[in-house]
Amino acid sequence: MKLSESLEVAIERGLGQDQSGQTGDAAEREIESALAPDPTLLSDYLTHLASLLPSAIRLSGTRLVVDCAHGSASHVAPELARQLGIEARILNAEPDGRNINLQCGSLHPQKMAEETRRSGADLGVAFDGDADRAIFSTHEGRIADGDHVLYATAPHFKRRGTLKGDAVVGTLMTNLGLELALARQGIGLKRTAVGDKYVLEEMLRSGINLGGEPSGHIIFSDISLAGDGIITLLQVLRLLAETGEPLGGLVRELKPFPQVIRNVWVREKRALDSIPEVAHAVAECRSEFGDRGRAVVRYSGTERLARVMVEADDAEAVRRHAARIAGAIESVLGNHAGVSREPSADPETAEAGED
pLDDT tier at 35 (50, 70, 90 boundaries)? Predict the structure, then answer.
């Protein structure tokens, strides 16, 4: 369960000052010195994970490639695989305190996907450093993000009668292709601001038990009220076992729309819909695409950035409109220092929980 922002701030302040009144690095060292590892926590967690699989599900012999991102999964995934009889090829599981997420994990899943294809594994997965996100690879080496996971799991949940509300929750970044593909199967999509905390809030408000983000945050609220990449992996493995289909087969009909994200550095954050040049560019985009596309324009919550996202079934038109909208913002609000930049590798991560 995600904490409220006010409670997060209060906890941060408390952690930043020890009982003697020290703050900053001195307080952090004092706090760290009082922490002690508890090996029972890992064993308890592994027991909990194993309990999530029905007794009829047998994963012995499953061939899996796992990228642990030199993070917390390094201590969990190998042991879980051993206990479940999974033949796991473990990548990037040597954390040294500095190499976490370094050119690996869910932000860089290409090597995991290539190893999955090369080794003939049934499935590949890449976690991020704290393992709350999971990005997958099909056995052919095709990367499957959070939208693919929702597409694979939601119809299966509906068929077995466990999809509450006949809908899933996504965000502004969820691809329109997923929304339309789910609609064809009688499954709705509710959108929230970017950040898994907002996804969870909407799930609880609407009584929906499945939601997530393209970045790999997936929430199965009947199991956990927080995204957990290991749980996501187990749910995908269960799905493959119950359907007898590879992941590639389950997501074959999902056709994500071309999507372009542009970041524009701004000198001030004026209401974007109040700027005629921007409003006109957005209106032109939406008029051309109709229900075949989307344009989302918003500010970053942590940086002086305007984010432009355009998606539709016409890749060239998407690029054209994204450039036009970004240019309109730049012409009025830009800091005139070559500010229009390509998006970061993971705009969701940069803004998770802060929009």
Answer: confident
Q: Which of 78, 67, 125 is nearest to 100 (CA)?
A: 67
| Sole residue written with tokens 């003939």 | 120
Report the pLDDT value the prediction gives residue 49, as an integer from 0 to 100: 97
pLDDT at 47 over 50: yes
7-16, 62-71, 268-277, 319-328: least confident range: 7-16
The three-point CA angle 328-340-212 to 5° equals 95
| Rg of the chain on CA atoms, in Å | 22
Distance CA 266, CA 178 (A): 32
Q: Where does 259-351 sit in CATH, by number?
A: 3.30.310.50
In this prediction, residue 5 carries a pLDDT of 74
Range(s) of the chain covered by CATH 3.40.120.10: 43-250
Tens digit of each residue's pLDDT (9 = 90 or more) over 87-96: 999 999 999 9
Q: Which residues contact 110 (CB under 8 A, 6 or more apart)?
A: 143
Is residue 315 within 8 A of residue 258, CB to CB? The reply is yes
User: Cβ–Cβ contacts within 10 Å for residue 302, how many?
Assistant: 10
Write down the pTM of the prediction.
Answer: 0.86
C-alpha to C-alpha distances, 21 to 13, 16, 28, 32, nearest whole angstrom: 11, 9, 12, 16
From-to residues of CATH 3.30.310.50 in the chain: 259-351
The structural architecture, per CATH, of the domain 43-250 is 3-Layer(aba) Sandwich (3.40)
CA distances from 308 to 27, 108, 198, 203, 225 (A): 40, 23, 20, 26, 30
Task: Write the DSSP string, 6-71.
Answer: HHHHHHHHHHTB-TT--BHHHHHHHHHHT----HHHHHHHHHHHHHTS-TT---TT-EEEEE-TTS
Whether the predicted pLDDT of 211 surpasses 90 = yes
Token look-up 């996100």 returns: 133
Residues 70-105 as b or e (16 or more Cβ within 10 Å = b): bbbbbebbbebbeebebbbbbbbbebeeeebbeebb
| Amino acid in position 123 | L
